Amino acid sequence: MLKPSDTTAVTLADVRRAAGVIRGQVMVTACNESRTLGEICGCRLFLKFENLQFTATFKERGALNRLQALSAEERKRGVIAMSAGNHAQGMAYHAKRLGIPATIVMPIGTPMVKIENTRRHGAEVLIIGQTLDECFAFVKSHAAERDLILVHPYDDPLIIAGQGTIGLEMLEAVPELDILVVPIGGGGLISGIATAAKALKPSVQVIGVQAQLYPSMYNAVKGANLPMRGDTLAEGIAVKSPGAITTKIVRDLVDDILLVSEDQIERAVATLISIEKTVVEGAGAASLAAVLAAPERFADRKVGLVLTGGNIDTRLIASVLTRELAREGRLTQLALDIVDRPGQLAAVCDLLASAGANIIEVSHQRTFSDLPAKATLLELVIETRDRAHLEDVLAQLGTAGFAVRES
After folding, report:
1. Following CA atoms 59, 62, 66, 68 in sequence, which dihedral angle do they give, to the nearest 10 degrees?
2. Residue 372 has pLDDT above 80, yes or no
3. pLDDT per residue over 118-130, tens digit each?
4. Which domains does the chain have, with CATH numbers?
5. pTM of the model
């Protein structure tokens, strides 16, 4: 049996053993075909709904497999881990179930929903450092001071084997899959899935996806030196330093790594809510973002996507959805320069109504503008059916003599 300190490659037998350890304690999530998304992407798409786990994250799998390997003496001492949120929740939930004290260190900027859920599961939560790397430095010293067992979120063979059970389940549910598309942060998930999938079906391709802002594994495997910086919607995979064990496995078994932009991640989150009626966080939507961004890469293939988690703040969901409406031309802010006299606002409103546009917000600006004193700036937020409808509305405003622009 694998020991936590081993640095040998994880095997299919280890993944199968992990499946036995977690059976009955972690959900076997659905792996369902999305016909609508498949039509959009030009392939057959199968979604693995790990966002529907009890803690809304696949991380339960590796966390439970690792905790079950602790001795009685180690369980009494307790565990410590650093996490941007999902490993934290998986660890806290199963540690509480098993009666193991847990301390979780999370970076500043971790979504509040992840912090509160972790606390709700009974863990002690410490918010320290700007990044996981800074968290890790504290975790190592804190573990030594308090004699705690450090559980790494991805660079641990037992964690990797636990995450690999997803690969077993996907190929059992849909044996004919040609490609698996998997988000990458530190690499634990894709390492486990690739280990299982390549052993079961050597012809299957395993494609990793990283946020363009944090291409750490991409750099490590491809010998690139792309910068890593900024706030990403996919904070769950915003890892600056991939694992040593995981990097070796990814280099050996993963066929390629794709990068996705913030706009592409936002679109994927919004698309999953709109079409699948399922809430997926930025990191969890990265796999769909990659397929939407490069459909030719997956054309006419049977593609499995892992929706890794659903822990996203409701405020952020609202922002993502409204921004997507704006991109689609369904929600637009307009600025019109109009003469400041009675009836002008009514004329604009009548024209918009006849054009089928819905007015959401109205604002007059007379003071803080560079318009003449007898003019006013009229700002509107309008709702239209799509981009073509918006263009028609703008054309009608122009024909009526209004100087209008999108703002």
Report:
1. 90
2. no
3. 898 889 999 998 8
4. 12-58+160-323 (3.40.50.1100), 60-150 (3.40.50.1100), 329-406 (3.30.70.260)
5. 0.89
